[in-house]
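Following up on my earlier thread - several people asked me to post the actual chain instead of describing it. Fair enough. Here it is, all 193 residues.
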Amino acid sequence: TYTVSKVKTGERRRSPAPPFTTSTLQQEASRRLGFTAKRTMATAQQLYEGLELGEGGVVGLITYMRTDSPNVSEQAQQEAREFVSGKYGAEYLPPEPPQYKTRTKGAQEAHEAIRPTQVSREPKAIQNFLSKDQFKLYNLIWQRFLASQMSAAIYDTVSVEITAVAAGAPQPYLFRVSGATLKFAGFLAVYEE
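Reply from S.P.:
Thanks for posting it. Predicted structure:
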């Protein structure tokens, strides 16, 4: 005989990851794109040094790619907030711009996190000017940065306990199951780790 003995519902928030540092960029590029650390850094160097974007001349697309710091300038945060508000709506913005702390012991925090130099320069808009690798890496950096400035995702959660009593068994069996459904996408609208 099976009996639902307990049902618990709730809500869970999932916060976005901070913008990339050198090590997290290498890890994510390896995991998502299959890039080696060397290939990632060579491509990032090209994006940093600048590329020809048609009429605009040579433009550096990302900030310096050798950094331990997840910090972001106020100007970049403001630009990201305006972009998110315009493209996704005000509900996708946290009340205050997020501040990320470095977890690396003895980190050199002279530079900002790795981010696009201009968040309004969407990857799709400049894809024709970039090589395949450059586009993939720029897209990854752009998405991660934008998501880091957005609201948390919200899930509705439910967990259920089911008691099963078998004839002749010394004690009942207990089964637990839990699940979650996405209620509000937040940063997941742009990027999922």
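The mean pLDDT is 93. That should answer part of your original question.
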